[in-house]
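Preliminary data (for renewal application), glutamic acid complex.
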Amino acid sequence: MSDLRVRFAPSPTGYLHVGGARTALFNWLLARKQGGTFILRIEDTDVERSTQESVDAILQGMEWLGLDWDEGPFYQSSNFPLYKEYIQKLLDSGKAYKCYCSAEELEARREMAMKEGRKPKYDGTCRQRTDHPADKPFVIRFRAPQEGSTSFDDLVKGVITFPNEELDDLIIQRSDGTPTYNFCVVIDDVIMRITTVIRGDDHVNNTPRQIQLYEALGFPVPRFAHVPMILGADKTRLSKRHGATSVIAYRDMGFLPEALVNYLVRLGWSHGDDEIFSREEMVQKFDIGNVGRSAGVFNPEKLLWLNAHYIKAGDPQRLAGLLLPFLAERGIDPQIGGPDLPTVVKTLQERARTMIEMAEGALFYYRAPESYDETALAKFDKEHLQAVYGAVADKLATSAAVTAAEFDAIFKEICTDKGWKMPQVGQPVRIALSGGTQAPGIGEIIVTLGIEETLLRIKLAQETVAGR
Ligand code: GLU
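Predicted structure:
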């Protein structure tokens, strides 16, 4: 084990967003690569907006992506007494002070500053205050250094420097006695002994304030890595307007977790021109220093391409398990009857780009066609169809073929005997067996459906055509 300790710290105010998932993934990868510790912390101090439902959704998303954590989930809300303790420490050492300025006073001074062209920051009225009116509400402010600058060497963005005069005396405790966000994060990261903070770059402006707090409390400052946002095609921050942004929505749309993980790792990080990474390769090759400085644009087409890749390469047994809920949604339970599901999967892996496409493609195996693709059927005249169905049924009924290749050979023989071209036989039979023309190879379908069911469906098609 190395000393590296990283954390993912989502606020449970919604589902697990793909941007958050990527932050979690980068943390996870670094921890796994260096043999460090990955901690999950739920930042639920905003009681108004935090929900258990959202916590569950986040945990579910993490589990689905296979981002297992070593410690936690810890809940920020259970640390309230500790925050109080550290706020008291800062007060006792004079590094924090009570501020009695009312909201109206602050607003009036803010307006004045704006009018005079000054930056509207807290003017320090209560910094030197020695009286403590018992009847007035107060907030507690951090006494931030006013001179010099606060700098950090970001692992992604390089050195970032903030002049201290631009930083306010941060409120660390509200007038209702609750600690504020930036303060809680620092205390949590300290007690969890976090060594590297990897988070979205929407937090860059919080970092100098947090560093000042570390220093005031006498704790070592961690390393920081601020990861650029994910954008939509129009270069604005990825949101619902661009399509699904929830990790679980991608599961429900038939994406495999390994495809989403592979997609997310490449969104902002690269290793030469490599596109496909197994989990082991990702862990081995990941380097936080290679995360790009500019924002990645979410490309659904590429995600689909990766998903198709992983479906093609997937283990049929596992894919069969993943397919069950998609089939159930379509009223099909392969456990009740019909062809062996992993065998069905094998015939569909080449074409399906999502598990939904695979489920749609699997339907005909479990449900004989109720209608046929009439446009496709209309390409052949009635006599030809009759002849094909008759010839195929005769041959199949007496054949000893068992493998897809053997069945395919039978179709070749029929073509040679009758002087037909392959599509002239293949298409009508495909239509008879699946209802349409988008289906796996004929031999594969027959092996999977079984000869009995195949003959039944051909007979049915033959009768339907004859009755016209
Ligand atoms: N809870 C914060 C968020 O969801 C993360 C804070 C952090 O990583 O420091 O954006």
